[in-house]
Amino acid sequence: MDSLNNTRNNAMRDIPISTKVQDDEMDAIDVCSCGNGQKAVYYCFDPKPDCEIGQIYFCDQCKINHLSHASILLTDFKKKYINEINKSFHLIDVTFSNAQAKMDMYSNFLSQCQRGKSILEPAEKRRDPLEDIKKLEQIYEQTKRLRDYGESFFQKNKVSDLNKINMKFRDFVKIVQDFEYISEMNDQIIWDCYQPAFESDFEFDLSSLNTEEKELYYKFKIQALSSRVKKLEVMLKEHNSVKQCIAAIAVQLNIEDRIKGFGL
């Protein structure tokens, strides 16, 4: 019993916490649904089974009855929300801006690489920066709208909805990390993405390329020829190895004369 009294006495000392909420902020906060007339200054972000249905916002008095609940002042949550949203959006904004700057440098050349790649059916799926920058831009525009959409919830202290928006932002940040390679665009990334286009007979429109782009094109064509030669060397080596194996078996079976007619 003494332990319970001590717990409630400690809880009573928590009541003045809500005085940290400024008067102008208090005016915008709804009255608690418990009916005692106090403002619902707390948000329960981890509701327990003994919560009143739908009562995720509560006052100082209700907080005493919800000691085991993870709660936070609405104003503190809003400050945390602003910090996290700004941080997340800044990361997305920087990633998109850097990627867009790189695409402005390479878009003309990559558009021809993409056409060359599109007429082929590569066995393996490769990244396509031109398609990925479109996806990244869509995410950027979505997050801008989402941030603006959250403004009305922010003004109305609907922190439960703000929390959902914040979770979506976290998901977007994880997705955006997959597109950071565009910001690091270089010769090796272009080769990895569009190698089949240079190994094919697709003809680039060289008249539309500037001097640097032409040099890059010839570099990749030489690289493609070198890669093809290496593959042929491997095939030839394997072919000779097979011939030697067949010849050895023919000797054992005494059928050398028979297989000569097959060119082996």
Automatic annotation (TrEMBL):
- InterPro entries xref list: FERM_domain (IPR000299)
Q: Which domain of life is it from?
A: Eukaryota
Annotated FERM domain ranges read 218-264
Q: What is this protein called?
A: FERM domain-containing protein
What is the scientific name of the source organism?
Answer: Stylonychia lemnae (Ciliate)
Q: Which gene encodes it?
A: Contig4705.g5027
